[in-house]
Each structure stands twice: as C-alpha cells, then as structure tokens.
Write a structure and sequence with these properties.
Strand order of the largest sheet: 1-2
CATH topology of the largest domain: DNA polymerase, domain 1
Shape: rod-shaped
Structural class: mainly alpha
Strand content: under 5%
CATH superfamily of the largest domain: Photosystem II 12 kDa extrinsic protein
Mean pLDDT: 86
Distance between the termini: 98 Å
C-alpha cells in the first residue's frame, strides 16, 4: 500500500532538475527538498512531520518517511549532515538532584530536641526521630541513654551508632506528683501497668500521701525494678 502511495506521490508532479548537496533534514525547506529531487507533496509530507514535532536524529531516520523510496534514500544518504545538537531534541530536561549531604557528628540533648533536630543525628532518619520523640513524651523524658533501646525498632546496632551523639539533661524530665496524680495521669507511662496504677492510688487513699520512695516500696505489687524505673519521674 505504502509503496503504491509513494509512487503516486512521486509521479503526481513534475520534478525540477535534481541537484544533490549537503543538507540537514531538520532545517531545509520545501524548495530545497524539491532541488534534491522530491516532489512538492513529498517535501510537504516531511515538513508536516517536522511541524508536529518530528525530528531526524540520524541519517537513517529519513528512511522511515514512507514518501521516500529506498532508492531515493540511498541517493540522498551521503549528503545528509545532521548537526550534533539535534541529537538532544526533545530529550526531557530534569532538574539536577541535590547532592547528598552526609551528616556530620553532632551532640543532641535528647529531652529538648524536636524531630527536626533529632533527625540531625547520624543514623537517625525522620521515622526514628518521630519514634524517639513519641516515646520520650510517654516517659516524660530520658534519664539514661540506654532507654533508647526501648524505642520501637531501635536495636543495639543502631544504639551503638548514635549513643555518642546524644546527651541527657535530667532537668528536662517532666515529673509527676505521685500524691495528686490520677489514673489518667499515669496510664500512658510505659513503666506502669493498669493494676499497678490502681494499687498506687488505692494505697494513697488508705494511708495518705507518699513522703518518699520508701513509702512507695510498701505497695506490694511494685517490684524493685518497677520502683527503680519510675523513681526519676516522680515528685512528692
């Protein structure tokens, strides 16, 4: 079909005398194509292709035009000269990616840092920064670095990577007055279970205010480990 159509186009008009010369198929106009031996319809077909964004990146691309016969292409091929810049036509231009910025060692105070500051710690990304801050809020603050191992997903290898980049100011710990605290005040603390909270409140109701940690030791449901863990968070 295309062969017959090409022949019809070639025969539809009288060609001017053929003059072969070096040319760039991305630039020459209708008259130049006719000088190369193409009919006006053949030339117009190529111009239409270019007007729709078509480009010739290499000489062989001209062979894809169905209006040009293999014989005509072979005659023109030695004269095709496409400028090198045309090989970049229509290639998408992407903004340069920002260079990766390697984190340098820092010293971050765990109880005062927000998630953005926490993210500056080498080895701590945005996800871990959020987890650390969330767990800190439940605790009321960290009193020792090892508590980072209690953060979900933070294993010993990660801890070893970040422990030298953090410090702790115990003055920033939010303390709970054990003599006025309600169940709701204590229920979110990770070191206390509901039964233990109820026992603390009931003992206070029966025996009065706690004066020291020694009084808290009288709540039998609390183990020595429980007492040790919660002591930094209590006031009397």
């Amino acid at each position: 079909y295309y062969s017959n159509l090409r022949n019809d186009i070639e025969d539809s008009e009288v060609k001017t005398k053929t003059v072969l010369f070096n040319f760039d198929p991305n630039k020459i106009e209708l008259e130049d194509w006719q000088r190369l031996g193409l009919s006006a319809k053949q030339a117009q077909s190529i111009l239409n292709y270019r007007s729709k964004g078509g480009k010739f990146y290499k000489p062989e691309d001209l062979q894809k035009m169905y209006t040009i016969s293999p014989q005509k292409y072979e005659a023109l091929r030695p004269y095709i000269q496409i400028e090198a810049k045309n090989t970049n036509y229509d290639k998408p231009q992407y903004a340069d990616k920002p260079d990766y910025v390697k984190k340098t060692a820092v010293m971050i105070e765990l109880n005062g840092a927000d998630t953005l500051t926490m993210d500056e710690i080498k080895g701590v990304g945005a996800a871990f920064a959020r987890r650390i801050v969330k767990y800190r809020e439940r605790l009321g603050g960290f009193y020792k670095k090892e508590q980072l191992l209690e953060v979900y997903g933070l294993d010993s290898a990660k801890y070893e990577e970040i422990k030298t980049q953090v410090k702790i100011d115990a003055n920033n710990i939010k303390k709970i007055n054990i003599n006025t605290a309600t169940f709701d005040d204590l229920k979110n603390h990770p070191y206390l279970k509901f039964k233990q909270i109820n026992a603390i409140i009931q003992y206070r109701k029966q025996h009065g205010n706690y004066n020291s940690i020694d009084d808290l030791k009288k709540v039998l449901i609390l183990s020595p480990e429980n007492i040790q863990n919660i002591t930094p968070y209590l006031s009397f």
